[in-house]
Design brief:
By secondary structure, this protein is an alpha+beta fold. Helices cover 50% and strands 18% of the residues. Strand 4 and strand 5 form a beta hairpin.
Amino acid sequence: MYDLMFKKTLGAKTPFEHEADELEQAHIYILKNCDEVLPYLEEFAQTHENACHLSDVEWNHQFIEWFKDRVAQLHKGDCSRIMEDMASLSRGPTQYLIHCNGYIVNGYRFHV
């Protein structure tokens, strides 16, 4: 059974927009550290032999674009929960978010 989590924001909510390079860094970090993505990382490395000559930034960008396309292609024929999750992972983090000065979660106060 899941514990119910009580959350409350502190202070005014301010919209915040991430920079494109921050989003790409966060996205590739998540992809490289997600077990479900490992087979795709291996497939990309095998099918893109010239990718070893790219800088890390270029390699990451090319993998993200390839991964989006590959998952979209596979998702057309497979609407399982796993493929839904992969599609969500391929889209990456959202660019827009709401920033608050702090939060109260289960009675604990966190200040940012």
